[in-house]
Amino acid sequence: MSLSSLPEYAPFKDRNDESQTGLHNDELKSSLLKLIHADPLGRLNPLLTLLDAAEHPEDDFTDALTQAVAVIQKFNENDPSSRPDKTVDVEPELCLFGTVSAKPLPGGEPAIQELKFPKGKATFANWGHTIYYEPEATFVVRTIEGVCELVKWAAREGKKVRVAGFRHSWSELFGGPDSVLLMFLPYSTLVKLPYKSPPADWKTELSGATLVPSVADRRPDAEHAFVRIMAGTTNDQFRAWCYQHKTVCIPFNVIMVEITFGGSNAPICHGSGFGSSTLSDLVEQVEYVDARGNVQVVNDPRELRAASGCFGLLGVVVAITLRVDKMGVAEMVPVKIPMVLAVPPPKGYPIPDAVKDMIKKDNITEDQLEAARLQFIRRCKEDYYLEWFWFPYQAHCWVNTWKKRAMTDQDLDLPEYPGSNLLTGVKAQQLESSLAEAITNWAPWSWLDGQKQAYVFGLSAMVGLPNVTKPEDTIQTYVSEALHFRRGIQNFRCWDSEWEIPIPATADGDRDYELVQRAWWDGISAMYSRKDAPARVALEMRLTGSSNVLLAPQRGNANGTISIEVLTTLTTKQEDWQSFLQLVADKWTSYTDRDGNRLNARPHWAKQWAGLMVDGLPVEKYFTDVAYKDAFVEFRAEFDAVVTKRGGSTEETLRRFGNSTMERLIFPMQARLDKQTGSDVKKPYAEPHRSRNPIVRLFGGIWKKIKGLFGSSV
């Protein structure tokens, strides 16, 4: 039975009543229970399972949660209004690409396979469903020679080449309708949910890791090693490799394991801790296929400032060699702390009323707030890894900061983390993410207003997070395990915007920790200020270091960086989310140092920043005129030096590998040339989903042809 055929009864009709603004947790829960019990058909009953699991974290709810997922998924299958976009869920046929010849793998597996879709061209959709386009062709490639031959073919055909892995970038860093798409892993592994690892019999030379003794006559010191990692290697594969060898580990990384090294390095991703930088700063060597289909190598430190993090503009990266650490042990003590004590507000900060009530309810004193401030600074100064989460309207934050120590002979048998615990292990985390994805694509979910959605999500998220309150319960695991403490992230799509804010120095030369506190509380205040609750997943903060990479948002931040982000569900209204991003951007880009100079805050390249304004400027104008004014000049010069030294040209390279966004920002002359020749890449759609109405699409196609005949003035 379709949901549309069922009556909407009275309790749901006032679900967006403005009188609900600023509800406190007890009121939110009471209001939610009324909605659940008011439905005579029990369609909201799976939420009761979530509430029970949240209130009894010591109990095993695996079977009940699995059943709740099954109920929701069955509902989604039977009701069209519940279904998410299915564009990327059509299984393609893998075919040999006869136009190009490349030697197969030793086992006979083809080097190149073209994906053929039942209805012609595939519609590319990124993981966050913010970018859609139809590539000219889509290929799975398993060898370096296969990449070379495809690039040569694309050059003959006048096509651009872009690579996509798990498609996690929310910004427009992908290809377009004039480009061909390359993938280094099976389509289903990269696109389908829930995530499944590549099949056991999957063979490729574009995944894997190997220790190398030196790079360009540079040898690592006793505390480091060089590892050549193929671009199609996932974080989970490298994590498993580190666990197997127990000799080296990457010093920092992104949390999720469902991402390739090619995908995380290209947009200059980062980890956590003041001792960290960006993944691109670890690069000792880049191997890529250039515009003429030849393998090139960059290992000169000066050239690497541009080549290590350049968004795929140089060519198709097939391998990177990273400088990694000797294996270390993480002493994890993740803990749930009252939110006002986790990162205390600066003195005199205008705290939201709901938080004042929390302080009053818990009898928190000024002395406790001061002790908490000192504890926060101690964590920042002493801990290796630094991360804080707050889920909307929750009374507690989850604090995940930990120390690192040297590995000893007694540490050779430490277990993998998070392990197989029924409540907090890998399978439990994967199930929780699958449940979140199913619920947010569930029609009854829309019956809850934004605040209730955020409250339920936050309550559920806190259930599966560990809470270590005794020293003897400290979690001992390898650094390579601790960095990926959360699994199954791939199974839950979300929207995400992150800013990198420089931390200025105080008069005595210390870091300005009060500014860190202010940025955190400006995020919390923004979330409480909106009755529509556009941020329904989390506020997250990591504290990181600086960077030497030319286009890194952390570059020049000598005292460190506040990496702070907000996340929401894909069912949030796009206009509400965009206006909220503007609200937090206004706050996070307004800070100054003690001399009144505006701090050079910059967003994470791969996350959501399009359409924002910064200090009265469109964000792209802010990039070119303020944030990256000098960096873009440096990058252009170094980029040109790299390609010309290897017999190419910037123009030829961008014709083959350019991306509309980066060309528009960094190479505006090339972007204008592309536009004149008709090879400019289509911008992302304004709405998160394309029309599926065949009449609309038919007339849209006719209109495009008319415009092509008579010009854009039609």
From TrEMBL:
<dbReference type="GO" id="GO:0005739">
    <property type="term" value="C:mitochondrion"/>
</dbReference>
<dbReference type="InterPro" id="IPR016169">
    <property type="entry name" value="FAD-bd_PCMH_sub2"/>
</dbReference>
<dbReference type="InterPro" id="IPR010031">
    <property type="entry name" value="FAD_lactone_oxidase-like"/>
</dbReference>
<dbReference type="InterPro" id="IPR007173">
    <property type="entry name" value="ALO_C"/>
</dbReference>
<protein>
    <recommendedName>
        <fullName>FAD-binding PCMH-type domain-containing protein</fullName>
    </recommendedName>
</protein>
<keyword id="KW-0560">Oxidoreductase</keyword>
<dbReference type="InterPro" id="IPR016167">
    <property type="entry name" value="FAD-bd_PCMH_sub1"/>
</dbReference>
<dbReference type="GO" id="GO:0071949">
    <property type="term" value="F:FAD binding"/>
</dbReference>
<dbReference type="InterPro" id="IPR016166">
    <property type="entry name" value="FAD-bd_PCMH"/>
</dbReference>
<feature type="region of interest" description="Disordered">
    <location>
        <begin position="1"/>
        <end position="23"/>
    </location>
</feature>
<dbReference type="GO" id="GO:0003885">
    <property type="term" value="F:D-arabinono-1,4-lactone oxidase activity"/>
</dbReference>
<dbReference type="GO" id="GO:0016020">
    <property type="term" value="C:membrane"/>
</dbReference>
<feature type="domain" description="FAD-binding PCMH-type">
    <location>
        <begin position="131"/>
        <end position="327"/>
    </location>
</feature>
<dbReference type="InterPro" id="IPR036318">
    <property type="entry name" value="FAD-bd_PCMH-like_sf"/>
</dbReference>
<feature type="compositionally biased region" description="Basic and acidic residues">
    <location>
        <begin position="11"/>
        <end position="23"/>
    </location>
</feature>
<dbReference type="Pfam" id="PF04030">
    <property type="entry name" value="ALO"/>
</dbReference>
